[in-house]
Design goal:
This protein is mainly beta. The protein contains no helices and 13 strands. The chain has a single domain, classed as Jelly Rolls, CATH 2.60.120.260. InterPro entries: PP2-like.
Amino acid sequence: MAMTKPHFQAEREAIILQKEGRRGYTIKPRGLTIVWGNDERYWKLPKIGSNEPVELLQVSWLEVTATVDLEPGKDYAISFEVELAPDAFGWRDIQAFLMAKVGKKGKYKWTKVKLAQDSNAGRFTIPDSNGLPFTIKSAGTTDSDNVLHFGLYEVWSGKWKGGLKIYEANVEDVTGK
């Protein structure tokens, strides 16, 4: 019997370029790379083409990442659209982090995000409606790697957590706003 890889690798067709309205990228659940995402004990992946979220059943190591190639000389903000299931657990005293860097050698910019919300709150945006802001340097600079690497992490507490639903990640062009 062939062994499958335990981590879910992002599917490029689930990363949608938005050219009008909210310009930037919308990354659907299957466009995310998810540590332990191929293991049904830990994650429930949506079917291909579905608008359903990816659902965290239980993990002690939360690492959900994505990469997109961005236009230089622009300002962007990243965020995740999430929800906690009524039976969510393990989030109360835990800080998760939204982290991003531009280029493989870039320095991470990060913010703490609180996921312990009222379980009846429905979908919400993390870090908030403004997202985590950053700028892609103009073309012609010496470090012209414009690939954004970002993700949602909680890998430090070692506590088990579950019930998180991730609907999408967004990388929005906020230049001139």
